[in-house]
Amino acid sequence: MTSVSGLVVVGLMLLVYVAAEEKSYSLELNSFDKNTKIENDDSWVDWGTLRMKKVSRNQYTLDGEFEFKRNIGDEQKLSLQVFSYDEGAKQKGPMVMNVNKPFCEFVNEDVDTYPNLQKKSNMPEQGDCPFPKGKYTIDNYELETTFLPDDAPKGDYLLELTLLDNEASLSGLVASVTLT
């Protein structure tokens, strides 16, 4: 599966930022896939081989290729929503986090993830906007693991990352995680 370039990857990182090796909790990635609840417009994004893989307790890497088939600029938005989730019933509960920003703004404001992700990929430098169409490769980027505080609520969460154009969903990724 391929990603919407840097912003999507940044959003995915936020999805898994949830745990740290030295933290008192564990993060389990239950699923990571293209969001089938929206009609993914293949003329914008091809998710290719993008995968998230567990390396050790609370450590995950992002690896693979994806393609932006169009330039992505601030006319498009990136939405990251996190919901409580009933893993057994596969039902989402209340939203616990919502970030909705113009694509380039989302990428350019990220000082923690994107600069390190860019070093492990062929993605453009921050500040380049629009984000150019093309094929991008991420080579075993180890996700940042210092996002949640030690007292983060334990439970199941559903993370949805969506690329929007004129408020219409174009493509997205979804992940299910359990924090114990």
From TrEMBL:
Signal peptide: 1-20
Keywords: Signal
Pfam families linked to this entry: DUF1091 (PF06477)
Entry keyword Glycosyltransferase: no
InterPro entries: DUF1091 (IPR010512), GM2-AP_sf (IPR036846)
Keyword Transit peptide annotated: no
Lineage: superkingdom: Eukaryota
PANTHER family in the cross-refs: CHEMOSENSORY PROTEIN A 29A-RELATED (PTHR21112), CHEMOSENSORY PROTEIN A 7A (PTHR21112:SF13)
Protein name: MD-2-related lipid-recognition domain-containing protein
Organism: Drosophila mojavensis (Fruit fly)
Top-level taxonomy: Eukaryota, Metazoa, Ecdysozoa, Arthropoda, Hexapoda
Gene: Dmoj\GI15675
